[in-house]
Design a protein that fits this description.
This protein is α+β, with helices and mostly antiparallel strands and about 240 residues long. The chain has helices at about 30-40, 45-50, 55-75, 140-145, 150-155, 160-180, and strands at about 1-5, 20-25, 85, 95, 105-110, 115-120, 125-130, 190-195, 205, 210, 215-220, 225-235.
Length: about 240
């Protein structure tokens, strides 16, 4: 079960067993909010922010990371500045320090000014969001990044549906490999997801294992008009 919650500053309700909480937020805010956000970041996060070439991207990163800290802090009942984060081999974030043994799992994604955060108890998860738009090399990307089955299904779409089909496939695959913690290092042709507009969102295959037996569940949704998103979490944990 996925629940979409508003951005909350107060103590957050804990995730119930088997549930995924999703929070949607906007990152285009005023200068005062950006300064307040920067104040809760770690030194490493501020250094990352300084490396962005464009001010708009820097501001969005600062706001998105600060909100992650506030959302985690609300669930841990600590100040945002006290949240300690670590990163896996492929960059997946997790709680560190005194909270490393916590059951709280999380993931985040942002596209343009839309940011999504997913939280679960004891279940690894991944989330991805994208603005649906026409991109010149979408057909080439689909040929390189989709599995054979996905590519055939993509090519069979009406040209008017291809932008939506492309990003539905992209977000579902990205959410899955983020849940695994492998990022783009995971072979993208090793699993299939559904992508056609109007069809149920499903993991169809992982290796030689049918999707319903793979141990992962997928849900897809549109957080705001013009955007699609997907969240993947472990089953039965």
């Amino acid at each position: 079960m996925v629940t979409i919650a508003p951005t909350a500053r107060q103590r957050a309700a804990p995730c119930t067993e088997g549930a995924v909480q999703v929070v949607e937020a906007r990152t285009d805010v005023g200068s005062e909010s950006v300064r307040a956000s920067a104040a809760v970041l770690s030194d490493g996060e501020r250094e990352r922010a300084r490396r962005f070439a464009f001010d708009r991207d820097r501001r969005r990163f600062i706001v998105a990371r600060a909100l992650l800290r506030r959302l985690l802090a609300a669930r841990l009942d600590i100040p945002p500045e006290s949240v300690e984060l670590a990163y896996g081999k492929r960059g997946k974030p997790a709680l560190a320090g005194q909270f490393a043994a916590s059951d709280l799992r999380f993931n985040l994604s942002h596209s343009e000014d839309v940011a999504l955060y997913a939280f679960a108890s004891g279940s690894e998860l991944g989330i991805d969001v994208e603005a649906v738009r026409a991109i010149p090399d979408s057909d080439d990307l689909a040929a390189r990044c989709f599995s054979r089955r996905e590519h055939a299904r993509y090519q069979a779409l009406d040209p008017r549906d291809r932008a939506l089909g492309f990003f539905q496939c992209w977000t579902r695959k990205e959410a899955f490999i983020k849940a695994l913690g492998d990022g783009m290092y995971h072979p993208l042709d090793r699993f299939d997801v559904s992508l056609a507009p109007g069809e149920p969102a499903e993991i169809l295959r992982v290796g030689d294992v049918p999707g319903e037996q793979c141990g992962w569940r997928l849900e897809a949704f549109s957080p705001v008009p013009g955007f699609v998103a997907a969240v993947v979490a472990e089953r039965g944990r």
